[in-house]
Structure formats: structure tokens, C-alpha cells
Amino acid sequence: MNRQLKFKALYENKLHDVFGISFPDLMVDIPLQRFPFTQKVKADELIQFVGKADVNGYEIFEGDYDNDGNCVIWCTNCNSWLFAQLDVPTKDICIPCHACDGNFFFDEHIQKFETVGNRLL
Ligand SMILES: [Zn+2]
Questions:
Q1: Range of the structural domain that residue 83 is part of
Q2: Residue 106 Cα, ligand 1 centroid: separation in angstroms?
Q3: How do residues 26-53 score in pLDDT, each as one tens digit?
């Protein structure tokens, strides 16, 4: 499998690296500063790695957005990673998927995408 599966977990209003997930309850192992250095928690949200890095080399995760409010989402209609339009001040998604709206700029724009935040934070 070439696709890299990687997740982050929202827990106590922070995003954490995920070392393990147990199914079906979706308990996740996240870092802990002290021994035993991981803890098993029930995440509020799990977000998935999109498989690409942004212009600064940071891995892009679901929900990441840029200065223009382009927010990476999985569109179940398009079956693909695409951009939604985020209203940045409220973190509300106002256009669920640009491609569903006829605007197919994902592949072009993801190459110059610069993450400024994640909509869950
Ligand atoms: Zn779509």
C-alpha cells in the first residue's frame, strides 16, 4: 500500500499525533510528557493526513485551511480530497465542496497551499 495512513486526534482542544487506534471504539494512543509516554484517550475528532505537504513542508491534514479560507475536506460526493470554503472568523464551512460547485482547482492549488490553521482549533 503506497498511501500513508496517518491521523491526528483532537483531545482537550489540541491536536495530537496518533500512535495507535483501536477499533471499533476509536480509542487513540497520543503522546504523554511523562512515563509511559503515551496515553489512551477517546478523541473528540480524528483527522486524516491528506498525503501531501504544504509549501513550508508541513503535512496537510483534513480541516487545514489557508489565508483565503480554502479548507481541505473529504468530499463523499466527489470521493476525493477537495477544498471547502471556510468562513475563517467563525470556522464555519460556507461552501461544502468547491468541486461540487463546478470549481476544480484542488490539484493546482494544493501545490501552493500554505496551512495557517485547522478549523477544529
Ligand atoms: Zn464534492
A1: 7-116
A2: 11
A3: 999 999 999 999 999 999 999 999 999 9
Q: How far is the CA of 100 from the centre of ligand 1 (A)?
A: 4
Instruction: Report the relative pairing of strands 20-22 and 64-65 from DSSP bridges.
Output: unpaired
Please give the distance, rounded to the nearest whole angstrom, from the Cα atom of residue 63 to the centre of ligand 1. Answer: 15
pLDDT tens profile 61-107: 999 999 999 999 999 999 999 999 999 999 999 999 999 989 888 98
Is 30 a member of any domain? yes
For residue 7, the CA-to-ligand 1 centroid distance in Å is 22
31 C-alpha to ligand 1 centroid (Å): 34
The answer to whether residue 38 sits within a structural domain is yes
The contacts of residue 70 (CB under 8 Å, 6+ apart) are 83, 84, 85, 86, 98, 109, 113
Look at the block and give the residue holding cell 499525533.
Answer: 17
Distance 74 CA to ligand 1 centre (A): 8
